[in-house]
Amino acid sequence: MDYTMGYLLALLLVGVGFLAFILALIVLEVSKPKFVVSLILSLLLVLAGGYYYYVVMQVEKGVANANIIHGLFSPAAPMVEAPVVPEVPATPAR
Q1: Nearest C-alpha neighbor of 63 from the set 55, 75, 72
Q2: What pLDDT, on the 0 to 100 scale, is given for residue 63?
Q3: Alpha helices in the chain (DSSP H)
Q4: Residue 52's CB: how many other CB atoms inside 10 A?
Q5: Which residue in 22, 54, 67, 84 has the fewest CB atoms around it within 10 Å?
Q6: CA contacts within 13 A on the Cβ side of 70
């Protein structure tokens, strides 16, 4: 029951993508270039919703790194230790 909201948001995104696809078919009657643009955007919405559904499913299963795209575009943190700065004793005020 914890991941129900994630599943609902993913399905909502897929639903908006299908509505955008129907709108793209309506736009086809007006202009072909606008149809192509709206078709690509609607397919991106459907794919984003499907990927989001996949990520929620993997997180629910307990997979360590479920977000594959984040791992592709963010470089790993370098294994360099921060330099140690020695503490300087405070000098008394005169």
Answers
A1: 55
A2: 76
A3: 4-27, 32-61, 68-73
A4: 19
A5: 84
A6: 7
- Distance from C-alpha of 51 to C-alpha of 15, rounded to nearest angstrom: 14
**pTM score of the predicted model:** 0.67
- Tell me the two tokens of residue 13: 């995104």
Tell me the C-alpha distance between 55 and 37, whole Å. 27
Structural tokens at position 75? 């470089």
| Matching residue, tokens 């791992």 | 71
Place of tokens 């405070």: 90
Contact predicate 76/19, CB 8 Å:
no
pLDDT in tens, 17-71: 999 999 999 999 999 999 999 999 999 999 999 998 988 888 888 876 766 776 6
Q: Closest Cα partner for 35 from 19, 23, 48?
A: 23
Give 38 or 88, the one with higher predicted confidence: 38
